Amino acid sequence: MSRITARRKVVRLTVGHPPTTREDVLAVEEPLEIRVNGRSLAVTMRTPGNDYDLAAGFLVSEGVITRGEHFVTARYCAGATDEGLNTYNVLDVSLAPGVRPPDPSLERTFLTTSSCGLCGKASIDAVRTKSSFPVMDDPVRVDAELLASFPDRLRTRQAVFEKTGGLHAAALFDGVTGEMLVLREDVGRHNAVDKVIGWALKENLLPLTGTVLMVSSRASFELAQKAMMAGIPVLAAVSAPSSLAAEFAAEVGMTLIGFLRGNSMVIYAGAERIVEGARAEAQRTTV
Questions:
Q1: Which of 43, 80, 116, 119 is catalytic?
Q2: Which residue in 18, 74, 103, 155 has a CA-CA distance of 20 to 30 Å to 58?
Q3: pLDDT the model gives residue 121
Q4: 168 and 53 together in one domain
Q5: 116 is catalytic
Q6: 266 and 148 in contact (C-beta within 8 Å)?
Q7: 3-state DSSP call for residue 175?
């Protein structure tokens, strides 16, 4: 499948100059219906690509699965149209025997847009009680200078954004060495994060202790929630966090960083994990 980008003729207009017609590249946005054991769970608007990771990460975020062996198979369903064609927009996940299927209350009969994932009081209460990977006691200490390099490194790896200018990105970094472990792009910021978490689940890396989740967007509650469900102790964003994200991070012991640009940042919770100079070097030598 090559459906990540699409071409469209556009008119470019600059005030005071004649209009010009050219071809532009757009990020594709299509619905994905996620089914579990044949039963519809949710529909989300996403950029096609890494759909298996997206489904796996979504199930982690919902507290349905926590280990790679829980996610047995996934397949695209034929017959999604009246003509019986496979649109590659319906994905059915099979869970391992003994894994409890999603609670019916999680099923969403409405469309999850590309701008919003899980929101609301029920979601907040659920994540506080069902997370399998608490981050409060994660001992990682992250060098501030190393952390400041993450946005540029994320940006240089955004291949589709380079063509379209229309995708969010999420990347997972080792908090001590600074190694980028994975990067995913999507029209929805929550989808990009789910794709990262799903990749980690399939690599049997959960919980993601000692890591930093770097996002190219603002840090909303939903992203903090997803990080918590995967055991990620540090969430960093190039833009602002929401008040609820900051409150949630402080409550669960997560480090939350916003406005990470150039050599500056604003730490909204968990400042003790961000260190400089000798303390950062000491942390690296003990790993």
A1: 116
A2: 155
A3: 41
A4: no
A5: yes
A6: no
A7: coil
